[in-house]
Design a protein that fits this description.
heterodimer; A: 2 helices; elongated; B: alpha+beta; Alpha-D-Glucose-1,6-Bisphosphate, Chain A, domain 4; seven-stranded antiparallel beta sheet
Chain lengths: ~70, ~190
């Protein structure tokens, strides 16, 4: 599924892939250490946060913490 | 305010459903979903807390266009996954056009009591509109569309689960493979007020 920011798609794909492997291989088996995907998440999230405001979201009223 | 509830059963295990929730889009029944992003995710204790942002086409009828001037609506989904209790709770709400029409949906996914290899999804939704003079019409429209979308959602999710877990899908007994592998239970539907 595409990201809200076109240029974030590649970063999203890398993060999603890491997360899905961790989720089924570790989390569902009881391992709650999610550090392995943190670096991918960081760069992907930075990209999304910038892009959410470049998509003409003038009618969006984010509550505090919606994007935190 | 309109209220709606329904129950569906997926002939997949809780673990499979949990994995499937992250891959449910795109699917053949989700042309209205334009984007999906994870905006926050953390472990608290042993549970996984996730927040995702979706943009969807707003699908409003012509008469609604006077209230809404964008083709898309933004939706936040917050979820809590507890792999020990095997419970998933999702809360989904639109964050744009909230005054025009607000839909809050809560779904609880649990292991089926009938069959430990199945998962039950108990859905509740609250539909509201604050538009002066049109609130009731908008709520009625919202409820009708939500009910229809539930069916699409279940079919779409089943499609994804069958693709991800074809062995489970093919092991479904002949009596259930011809009908939809989940049912909405109309007996639980809405109480309006």
């Amino acid at each position: 599924m595409d990201s809200i920011g076109e240029n974030c798609n590649e970063l999203k794909k890398q993060y999603d892939s890491c997360f899905l492997n961790w989720f089924s291989g570790r989390f569902l088996k009881g391992d709650t250490n999610d550090e392995v995907c943190a670096p991918f998440f960081k760069v992907y999230q930075q990209c999304v946060k910038v892009c959410t405001y470049c998509n003409n979201l003038k009618f969006v009223h984010f509550r505090d913490g919606d994007l935190s | 305010m309109k209220y709606f509830e329904s129950t569906s059963v997926f002939h997949f295990s809780w673990d499979q459903v949990a994995q499937g929730l992250w891959k449910r889009y795109p699917n053949p029944h989700s042309k209205h979903v334009l984007s999906e992003d994870t905006v926050s995710r953390e472990i608290r204790g042993s549970k996984l807390f996730t927040k995702r942002l979706f943009t969807k086409t707003n699908g409003i009828p012509k008469w609604g266009e006077r209230f809404v001037d964008s083709r898309t609506v933004h939706i936040v989904e917050e979820s809590i996954m507890d792999p020990n209790e095997k419970i998933i709770i999702t809360y989904t709400r639109n964050i744009s056009y909230v005054r025009v029409m607000s839909i809050v949906e809560k779904v609880i996914y649990k292991v089926s009591k009938e069959n430990p290899n199945w998962t039950v999804a108990e859905r509740s939704a609250w539909i509201d509109s604050q538009v002066y003079g049109f609130g009731r019409a908008i709520q009625a429209f919202g409820l009708k569309r939500f009910r229809k979308n539930c069916q699409q959602m279940v079919e779409g999710f089943n499609h994804v689960l069958m693709t991800m877990f074809p062995l489970t899908a093919t092991s479904l007994p002949p009596t259930t493979s011809d009908e939809a592998t989940s049912q909405l239970n109309p007996a639980n539907e809405g109480k309006y007020h």
